[in-house]
Amino acid sequence: MKVSFQALSRHVDLSGVTTDRLAEVLPMLGLEVESVHTFGLAPLPLVVVGEIVSFEKHPSADRLSVCRVDVGDGNPRQIVCGAKNFKAGDRVPVALPGTVMPSGTEIKVSKLRDVDSAGMLCSSEELGLGKGEDGLLILTPQQPVLGTPLNKLFGAPDTVLEISVTPNRGDCLGLRGVARDVAAALNLPLKPLTVKTAAGLAAAPTAHDAFGFVRSSSEFCPYYTLRTLKNVKVGPSPDWLRRDLEAAGLRPINNVVDITNWVLLELGQPLHAFDAAKVSGGIEARPAREGEELVLLDGKKVKLETGICVIADAQRPLVVAGVMGGNESGVTNTTTTILLEAAWFKPGEIRRVARRLGVSTDSSHRFARDVDPAGVELASRLATDLLIELAGAEVVGPAVVVGQPPRADANIALPAGYVAAKLGTAIADADVTQSFQRLGFTVSPTSTGFSVLVPSFRSDVTRPIDLVEEFIRIYGTDKVPAGRPIAPLPGDEDTRSSGFTREVAIRLAGAGFTECCHYTLRDAAEVARTLGEAATPQLALENPLTADQSHVRASLVPGLTAALALNVSVHADPRGLFEVGVVFRPQADGTVREFLAVAFAAPAESLVRSWKSREAFDVLRAKRLLSDVATLAGVTAARLSFGVATGGLWQTDHASSLVDRGRSADGACGVLDLRWTRSLGLKGSIVAGEFLLPRSTFADALRIPRFEAFSSFPPATRDVAVIVPTTTAAGEVLNRVQQAAAKAAGKEFALESVNCFDVFSGPGLPEGTRSVAFEIRWRHAARTLTDEEANRAMATVIAALEKGAGWTIRS
Amino acid sequence: MQQPLAQLVATAQQEALAVTSRAELEAFKARVVGPNGSLTAVMKGMATLSKEERPVVGKLINEAKRSVEELLAALLLKVEDAEIAAALGTPWDATLTGPDAPAGSLHPLTRTRERILASFRKLGFTVAEGPEIETEWHCFDALNTPADHPARDMQDTLYMPKAFRSADAPRKGEEALVLRTHTSSVQVRTMLSRRPPFRIVAPGRCFRRDAVDATHSANFHQVEGLWIDRNVTLADLRGVLDFFVKETFGPDAEIRLRPSFFPFTEPSFEMDLRSPNLGRLSNRWLEIMGCGLVDPKVLELCGLDSNEFSGLAFGLGLERIAMLVHGIDDIRHFYNNDLRFLRQFA
């Protein structure tokens, strides 16, 4: 909403108020000032009227002219100029040396291509008057006196403040509403609004001579008024009207349209003028019928959704009510009789229809924000005054009024002390009532506090709490002191997942990884790579903005991989990267679950050259890191089981999947698919890991460790090497050894650990086998184990292992 | 006797110079104090001396013995030093660049988030979280923003298709699922599941259907706060925000509450910040966050009696705060993951 200082002054006396002050006051009322700019000619004392006495082509520049310019001091000066639209004898604005142009450029005596130039001849745009015709601003027709400062030719400049109006303040989409707030803030009176045209009759006829019926059969149009004006002379608007529209950013069209627009800007009430000659039979606000179409003002033909409110004549819809007119029934240069509509439409429906049609007009914007029902008639009368005055219109018959204003002034019972209680500070009742009165509310005391009558232009103020906001807007938020010191509430804790998010990031950063942050929205190809083509549609958005942001992410790994590639390409020497964030995975039951994911990725071989070579980042270190991450989340190593990762992001045979037994956490680690990472420009292999935690992981109460006594006697240790087929997973062998060793200990003593210390294949072993060796440690709680006990246990373990198909014990 | 002993010690000292290894040390030791050593031989000769001579000679022998023992101890140190030097190899040059990766770093958004959460923790706010894909009810309706309300135009929303079902945010009936536009939905979930009093902060990722540019991002992060109790007032809001701003931007920072509008708070404010320590943004009012007292309608929608309870709420953008604190001029830096950016926050 563009608010002109001069226009605002029509409603409130701003003679003692600077624009700077106004720009300070408005934001503290809730009307944010987005920009302030000068409208019209800014004060430019050194820009004067000059006459181009003669001119010739610049000796060394085809496009430039060397002009002799008289500014009335009898001393013609030489000025070089690039424009072409003038002739000798033309009067033009001359910026004399020392002028600071609206753009900030200072005009100096200078040389242009070796020719002296003592000033500048100005175009409309250079003077800050907006884009005019190409070239200089020609003043010749006005015959101004040479040397006259240009400001004398133009009126005083206006200041236009662009304010953003929040959705609750529909009343401030009219100057009157803004003025009302400014008046309240500055404690100035609001100037009265005088309208000559009489109000319509409450029990008005629904028809008269000029045309047939006027009625509403749409629930979305409870209140409709129509005035008829004849002998209208359509033509250009007077300067003041054009100026006001232009200051507000509207283009003048003709006096009738301009008057409806002007009233809209003034009061926030949209009006519509029909050409009566193009309306047949009557006017009805009614639901659109199935299959009806309308060509809108912008030339777009739309199919009307059945049931939306249209303004129609006896034959066809003319207007999408409150949103946009049709291009057949509007006012043209040949119009003589007009029907002037002023109405109230249901805000929610107008908003819905406008969005549906993909348009937002000055009308729909205001109707959607609930125009003042009491302002409907007023706007119509004000427009009628102007049509009579500026377009020679004559009123035909009485105004037709259909229905009732849907809202009236609201009475709010405000308990005594309520405002102070919400503010948390002592406030005098007089301060409260005075603030409301300044806003145009009527306050009367009651036995329990106050009764506040809020006029219908403030549809957003209906409850005591709304009055608190009104009070604070006028009273000032700076007068509310900071409140009491507060202590934490006992027993309150952060959610566990947030603690994990923090700790895991610190852990990984400590391990040399740098944290990244990628967008959640990814393209289909990335999701397909992670989950396969079949599952990809399950993560698609309904209304993506762009094709590369069409899906929610299924993994953090592709982002990290891309970041490695980016940092290689910019020579930023990437090492390890990690990310913590939410990813989405389709579940077996058809739902999609959110997982808190932790992922890391690093080049296996450092990309940074070094005088000393270091251990590569291999799958085993990735596995270790991933297990640490799981432990930090409360998923113990015992719950994790590693399997084979197949396809997708991972390189077959060089990566492992990871399952949290019995829970839905999972993950993977290993080498990323080499073809893929190479295609991104990453030369060596990339080792990565990702662990996915469902929210349920963090739902369990944190387990508090309980102390268990341990033995003070030495353990008995035995080694066993098992020769198994290479196709047998080491994990399986380990499990069997653990089971056998635990069983062998029986109830007498306990298995403490089984540790794999050697894996070997090669000379001495049969083809297709390998030897996996374990150290078994038993311990007794109350004494030292004897050699016999340990040997007996060992014999049991060997016997058990030899039962494995194709398993032998290496001696 | 004195003469031969002095000779013996001098000889030993002379020979010790040649000892460089443990084997040589052992051989040398045997030559002097072994069973057939030179000193041992002298000591054996004591037996042949007269009663009068013995104390005198004994004293001389003890002196010689002590000299030899000191010599042996010194030799042992020397040999051990040589052994250690051999075991350790070339001396270390501390000025040589280490080949290992330096410690990694936290993302500036993580650092900013933790800093903000830490300051609210001091005021007894604890962290709450919720799903990123939310039901329309939790994201809008419960926050007093019904479908036909113009406030829904304030932000463009990304929707999930009708067929989409979330395990974390089951929907009721025909309502749509959206990528949450703010973490206020976490406030709704908290009010529905907990009995006041409580004070929570909800950090998290949010989404708008915005084209990406220097100040807009398809996703961004918020930290939203909610305090519900009996008699929570505007003065409390001011107190909490004043504390937060001074924690984050230093004691010279000041705030102003500028009336505004949000469907879920009444009265509503934009909180502006002014600080002398923000580089080229110093000493002018900057919009930082939205806040206000929780609208009674929201309390009722979330099952709380608005006559009994009141509350305050606020929400700020992490990116905005991080940009101000670190002087970052383009929001896209946070998501580009160029290490030349990220490493600046190590």
Describe the structure.
The complex is a heterodimer of chains A (about 800) and B (about 350). Chain A has about 800 residues and is of the alpha+beta class. Chain A has six domains: about 1-40 and about 160-185, Phenylalanyl-tRNA Synthetase, Chain B, domain 1 (2-Layer Sandwich), CATH 3.30.56.10; about 45-155, OB fold (Dihydrolipoamide Acetyltransferase, E2P); about 205-405, Phenylalanyl-tRNA Synthetase, Chain B, domain 3; about 410-480, 2-Layer Sandwich (Phenylalanyl-tRNA Synthetase, Chain B, domain 1); about 495-700, 2-Layer Sandwich (BirA Bifunctional Protein, domain 2), CATH 3.30.930; about 715-810, Ferrodoxin-fold anticodon-binding domain (Alpha-Beta Plaits), CATH 3.30.70. Chain A has 19 helices and 38 strands. In chain A, a hairpin with a 2-residue loop joins strand 7 and strand 8. The mean pLDDT of chain A is about 90. Chain B is α+β, with helices and mostly antiparallel strands and about 350 residues long. Chain B has two domains: about 1-90; about 110-345, 2-Layer Sandwich (BirA Bifunctional Protein, domain 2). Chain B is about 40% helix and about 20% strand. Chain B has a seven-stranded mixed β-sheet with strand order 1-4-5-9-8-7-6, sandwiched between helices. Chain B has a two-stranded antiparallel sheet with strand order 2-3. In chain B, a hairpin with a 2-residue loop joins strand 6 and strand 7. In chain B, helix 5 (about 110-120) crosses helix 8 (about 235-250). Chain B is rod-shaped. Chains A and B meet through helix 7, helix 10, helix 12, helix 13 and strand 26 of A and helix 5, strand 1, strand 4, helix 8 and strand 6 of B.
Question: Could you provide a short overview of the structure?
Answer:
Chain A is an alpha+beta fold and 811 residues long. Helix content of chain A is 25%, strand content 28%.
